[in-house]
Structure formats: C-alpha cells, structure tokens
Amino acid sequence: MKNNYDSIADYYDVLSRMIFFRSQVKAQIQQLSAIPANSTVLIAGGGTGWILEELAKVHASGLNITYVEISSRMLERSKKREIKGNKVEFVHAAMEDFKPSGVYDVLITAFFFDNFSADNIQLIFNQLHALLKPGGIWLFADFYYTEKAGKKWQLFLLKSMYLFFSKISSVEAKMLINTEHFFEEQSYSIIKTAFYYGRFIKAIIYQKPGQLISILED
C-alpha cells in the first residue's frame, strides 16, 4: 500500500528527531494557537498522534477532531494519546478514500503533501480545499526546497529521504512538489510564515477566502 508507514510506526518519531531534532515538532506546535475554540478540525495523515496532546494543551475541550491515517499501527498509537475533553473520530483510510460527513473549520496537513506524486497532488489539494469552510484556517507544514534558493545539503537530504521511504513505506513521490501555487490559485491569504532547520522546513498558516473567523496571530 502506497504511503503507508506501518513498518516504521514504532520508531518514526525517534527517527525524525534524530535527523531534524525538534524542528518538525516546533513547526507544528507554533501554529496551533491559530485554531479557534470549539472548532471542527480535520487532521490528514496525523502519524503517531502526538499532535493530539499538543492540541489538548491549547484547547482542553471543545474541539471535534477527525483524524485520518492510512497506517493502522500509527492509528493504534494515536488512540492512546491524552485528548482531555476534546472529541476525536479516528478514521483508518487513505486521504483520497476518505468520505467526510461535513466540512471543517480547520485543516492540518503536516509533512503530508511530500508523500504524493505530481499526478495526484492536485487531486488531494482539491479534495481538502473542498472540505474547508469559507474563512477556515489551513495549517500547513512541510519540507521546502527550490533550485534557485536551495542548498546542496537540502537536496542531498531530500534525495536520501525519498530513497529510504520509497523502500520502507512505498512512498509514491520521487521528488518534492511545490504546493504554494495551489493556494495562490484559490486566493488563500497567508496569516503567518515561519522557517525551521536552516529554512528546510516551512510552516504556513493559510486562510481560505470567505467570511473571516477569529484567530490568534501571536
């Protein structure tokens, strides 16, 4: 099964921190204050679920979270997390097979789009875009590299990661696809942008066009 991390679920977080220290974690945590109270939240490809505990630190109750993850072992670990008074629906599915019952105030896609090939990434974006309410918040974090501004070590690390994950987890992508133009084409506003790990990780808080909802920008 493509993009399935079952084989490394038990040590995925350790591996991530060995390479990137806490940069991936910080990129996600520092976005969470933008989530309004009592939001409906969709997490696409949530991994081991540590983000649920961080969400509970920001909002101890009131969130209704849908957690979509293709890896059954990742999902098992996620279900053991402390969610306090929030409600979480765990969905074992690939995002492209997910059948939602409604739309959401907030989307979270952290290190998610880097799994998809150029043939599929537009379809995945369109699907998620349709699930976000007008004025909704999209928390995006992923690796960032451009030929113009990128460094040689970033390109080497990217190639190494894709080679590793293609063998271990059947990741379909062979290269990192820039997603910023998808958001631009749909007229998303950028609320905040932050870089981590020598500008190799980029975190963006987007807002979908439409009626504005209250967010925290600090």
UniProtKB/TrEMBL annotation:
Protein's UniProt name: Methyltransferase type 12
BP GO annotations: methylation
Record-linked Gene3D superfamilies: Vaccinia Virus protein VP39
Gene Ontology molecular function: methyltransferase activity
One Pfam family here: Methyltransf_25
Domain Methyltransferase: from-to ranges: 41-136
Keyword Nucleotide-binding: no
Signal peptide: none
Keywords: Methyltransferase, Transferase
